[in-house]
Specification:
Order of helices and strands: EHEHEHEHEHEHEEHEHEHHHHHHHHHHH
Subcellular location: Cytoplasm
InterPro entries: CheY-like_superfamily, Homeodomain-like_sf, HptR, HTH_AraC, Sig_transdc_resp-reg_receiver
Largest sheet: 5 strands, parallel
Shape: globular
Number of domains: 4
Mean pLDDT: 84
CATH topology of the largest domain: Alpha-Beta Plaits
Main location: cytoplasm
CATH architecture of the largest domain: 2-Layer Sandwich
Number of strands: 10
Strand content: 5-15%
Low-confidence stretches: 485-492
CATH class of the largest domain: Alpha Beta
Strand order of the largest sheet: 2-1-3-4-5
Keywords: Cytoplasm, DNA-binding, Phosphoprotein, Transcription, Transcription regulation, Two-component regulatory system
Distance between the termini: 78 Å
Pfam families: HTH_18, Response_reg
Helix content: 55-70%
Radius of gyration: 29 Å
């Protein structure tokens, strides 16, 4: 938190700063200004959370300085300092929506109570702004997931955006996997809650494939601190699971969205690096032979989790025939750690031959981890969607409701249904939207959007147009025109 004290009296500044240092926490920075002009400059540069401003200052008075600072730092709370209990000053303060009005000399107990109120207001305001950021971000990412087009009218400003995408290597059908996912989610939420006073917003969401993402918007200079904390989360979770993380840093949300998609597309690169860390996604693609090797490792792990022995043996066979030079660019020890986390047995990393031999020796272990396939739950989920498509449904919410992890649900929903979860949900919503548009011509497009689960009519229209080829209003007009023409032909 940053506090600015603006007063031309050096002793007042010193006294107030001393009292504040006894009241506020150690991570608070207190800066000073000795006139109104400096106060405006400090607000423009530091965007303080709280400003104590004297009424009578040289170069620029406190009232006009506050009015100017309001435009430069809208979220700042202002407290007026004055030795004059003049009602006219009080009226001006009210018109500027200052947080309080305190008389000199300042009473320490009064200041303590004031700071409690200001900090609570700050926390409430930041939480409200962060909630809006999260809702808007999820809405925007879902639009790009479903419509596949850039519509970035809502977030045109440039900022520092960070996207962290997490991957868990663990026995996919075990309770350990679900426990690790829940712990990861809880730790990320705790991390986000620590940002209230750091000029930073965060949102937690799952991709259309059920992969956990955390997005940060940084209005300060917190990147290195964030990176350290995320790496600590990855390192401190279950010893029996490996949590890896790649991140991208972009100047706008659409570039960040594409960056997160790229992380998921290239997630096999995690096998190249030490696990339990947050790493920047490499900007350049690896050599083709390296990518093929890593993709075969990924195929092998998926085959093991799916208890598909034929696919498993094919993957091992492909690895056995890789060019010897490929291994010079790969650390088999890192790969073996990931494999051990999924299979539950150590794999030799001495050389390629012993590596593949040990993979063949432990393939029978896949049957020990085989549980009941959640086919019945997929049918239940479809039924739930058909009854609740108008609600705020997400893959994360459905996974929690049916006791599955999001990426596991995504994978097996696609496997059983032949369509991705988000596409199935969209199809159900659009089918019902078409029914409403046809049956009731009096319902507005905005109301139709809400009735089928979309908060934004603009997003609904984009997704409807992608699905049907027409925007909702065009679809309704075309149906009415065609129905009228058909009716005329029948009448003749």
């Amino acid at each position: 938190m940053v506090i600015l004290i603006a007063d031309d009296d050096r002793l007042i500044r010193f006294s107030l700063k001393s009292m504040l240092l006894d009241i506020v926490s150690g991570n608070t920075k207190i800066i000073e200004a000795k006139n109104g002009q400096e106060m405006v400059e400090q607000c423009a540069q530091n965007h303080p959370e709280i400003v104590f401003a004297d009424i009578n200052m040289p170069r620029q008075d406190g009232i006009s300085a506050i009015a100017q600072c309001r435009k430069l730092s809208p979220a700042t709370q202002f407290v007026v300092l004055t030795a004059y209990s003049d009602f006219n000053y009080a009226k001006k303060c009210i018109s500027l929506q200052v947080s309080d009005y305190i008389l000199k000399p300042i009473d320490c107990e009064q200041l303590n109570e004031l700071m409690k109120r200001l900090v609570k207001n700050l926390t409430d305001t930041q939480e409200t702004r962060n909630s809006k950021f999260q809702v808007d971000l999820i809405d925007l990412f879902q639009l790009w997931d479903e419509a596949g087009a850039k519509e970035n009218e809502q977030y045109e400003e440039k900022s520092d955006y960070y996207g962290f995408v997490f991957f868990i290597d663990c026995a996919n059908r075990s309770e350990l996997y679900a426990k690790t996912y829940r712990n990861l989610l809880a730790n990320v939420k705790v991390l986000g809650s620590e940002f209230i006073h750091k000029k930073l917003f965060y949102a937690i969401l799952n991709s259309k494939e059920g992969v956990l993402r955390t997005i940060f918007k940084d209005e300060g200079d917190n990147f290195h601190w964030i990176l350290l904390r995320v790496s600590q989360i990855c390192a401190n979770l279950s010893k029996d699971c490996l949590v890896s993380c790649f991140y991208v840093r972009k100047p706008d949300l659409y570039s960040l969205y594409l960056g997160c998609e790229q992380i998921e597309h290239r997630q096999y690169l995690r096998f190249l690096y030490p696990p339990r860390k947050a790493l920047a996604l490499p900007e350049t693609e690896e050599e083709k032979s390296v990518v093929i090797f890593l993709k075969r490792v990924s195929d092998l792990l998926l085959a093991f989790q799916d208890v598909n022995q034929i696919r498993y043996r094919h993957a091992v066979n492909d690895l056995q025939h890789m060019a010897p030079g490929t291994l010079k660019k790969i650390n088999l020890d890192y790969i073996s750690q990931h494999i051990c986390a999924v299979i539950g047995a150590k794999v030799s990393s001495k050389d390629l031959k012993s590596f593949c031999s040990s993979l063949l020796e432990i393939q029978a272990l896949m049957y020990r981890q085989a549980n009941v396939h959640p086919s019945g739950k997929i049918d239940q989920i479809k039924e739930y969607i058909s009854q609740n498509y108008m609600d705020d449904i997400s893959i994360n919410m459905i996974a929690e409701k049916f006791d599955l992890t999001p990426n596991y649900l995504s994978k097996h929903f696609h496997e059983k249904s032949g369509v991705k979860f988000i596409d199935y949900l969209t199809n159900v919503r659009i089918a019902n939207a078409k029914r409403i548009l046809i049956q009731n011509s009096q319902v507005s497009i905005k109301d139709v959007a809400i009735m089928v689960g979309y908060h934004s009519p603009r997003h609904f229209a984009s997704i409807f147009q992608k699905s049907t080829g027409d925007y909702p209003s065009e679809f309704r007009r075309n149906y009415q025109r065609n129905s009228g023409e058909d009716g005329g032909k029948e009448g003749k």
